[in-house]
Amino acid sequence: MTTLVQSVDWLAVAPPALTALVALAVLVADLFTPEARKPLLGIGAVAGLALALLSLLPLLDGDRATFCVAEAGCSYRADHFALTVQLLVLGGALLAALLSFTAVREQRLPAGEYWFLLLSSAAGAALLPAARDLATLVVALEVATLPSFALVGLRHGARRSAEAALKFFLSSVTATAVTLLGTAFVYASTGSVHLDAVAAALGDVDPQLRTLARVGVVLTLVGFAFKTAAVPFHFWVPDTYTGAPLPVAAYLSVVGKAVGFSGLALVTVRAFPSYGNVWGPALAVLAALTMTLGNAAALRQDPTRPFSAVRLLAWSSVGQAGYLLVPLASAAYTDRPEHAIGATLAYALMYAAVNLGSFAAVALLARGRLADFRGLYARHPALALLLAFFLLCLAGLPPGLAGLFAKLAVFEAAIDAGLGWLAVVTAVNVAIALVYYLRWTASLFRATPEPATEAADVPTAGGGTATAVREKAPVREKAPVRAAAPVTAAGRPLALLTVLTVCGLLAVALSAAPQLILRLADATLF
């Protein structure tokens, strides 16, 4: 007789559980905290995320599973894959939380709600890579996504923010419905929701149910493709990033992508390996389209357009999503799918560090236009050098060796899988991306400003807008780079400087010793 009684390994589930408990504690504490002490809620949120990160340490010694049912499988597994993604998710959420202190204060966002939503989303994102059944996978995906809608539109009275949240919500709800329909079809054709059991059943599915199973696989992939911002499911990204507070945009660009790619890795390699002939070509085409459209759109950004810096980072994130899809597509054509998944994780870790650093630099200077970064080195040489290093890492050029070796891992995965055409497309797109990354980098060191003739709205450090009037005629002297009020006051924002320092140290460490993340390609992840 099969028992449905399940034991719970609380140590294994500690990372998402601690994050969720701290989220509830912050929400309750907000009811009893006076307005003057609201910043303490942010400190509590950061402390909770740090504690969740520390809870990963006892799990490094081996593979732990819980919520197991005899003859069916386990719903939660803390293996090397889950721990690596949880490190990325919780670390990214922690840095985004540090970025948020200025935004919450300057934009007068409701502190309790903000920190609760951020922690709730992080808890769902930490749960997803450890999920080993379709039901838990979908629930974790929605727990990670639903709070993000509110975070994007949390600024009351901001039309751009409300519009971005609405677009994000409508498109995501559609993707969720498609995912649920796909998982329902998979369950109907296999009779199980556990990923390993689904993989075994799909290998020998009833001939009458093969069409249903194939449709279920495709619909499930479509849902996760939206979360990764893959073309043609990317249209929400630019407006959402520019409408959201900058810390939320940074969070979505890193943690949101980690959620989508970890979900894709689980359903393809663990649940649908026998349908590699379906999802392999599909992901390869999606990768080519995503990187091409993302880089082409980033290349066309007008430096004088409001929010052009954030929009460039948004389109760049779409292009980077294409690179991340390449190893996932390669997993369908190789006998070592874990090697391909490891390449994706290595690239994601590099991207998280340098992309969060780039957003932190934009937030610190309260600059929304690319033209406003011209001549930054003249006023803030250290910050200009750091931002230039982040951009070179994203481009994959020395001294940003972290990005270079991460891209080489992507090329290797494609070539080993026999996807030569995809490797060529990737190489072409890397060359295209060099143009806009180097153009932004070069502008940091130019001594003379570009002439401008009109006033425009630029986002503040907290993600709001302020009117900046540009000169109507060019001048010979160096143009001063106006910093946000917290930068020119008694001291620079400690939280923002902390994020920049941590991201800079991580980027330098990964450039000096890329084997720290490249060894994931040869690790036993599952």
Protein model, in words:
The protein has 526 residues and is mainly α. 67% of the residues lie in helices and 4% in strands. A two-stranded antiparallel sheet has the order 1-2. Strands 3-4 form a two-stranded antiparallel ribbon. A hairpin with a 5-residue loop joins β3 and β4 (465-469). The longest helix is centred in the N-terminal third of the chain and has 32 residues, at 159-190. The chain starts with 13 loop residues before the first helix and ends in an 8-residue tail after the last helix. 60% of the residues are buried.
The pLDDT mean sits at 84
Task: Assign a percent range to the helix content.
Answer: 55-70%
Distance between the termini: 29 Å
Question: How many β-strands, per DSSP?
Answer: 4
Largest beta-sheet details: 2 strands, antiparallel
Instruction: State the secondary-structure class.
Output: mainly alpha
**Gross morphology:** globular
Which regions are unreliable across 5 or more consecutive residues at pLDDT < 50?
450-458, 467-491
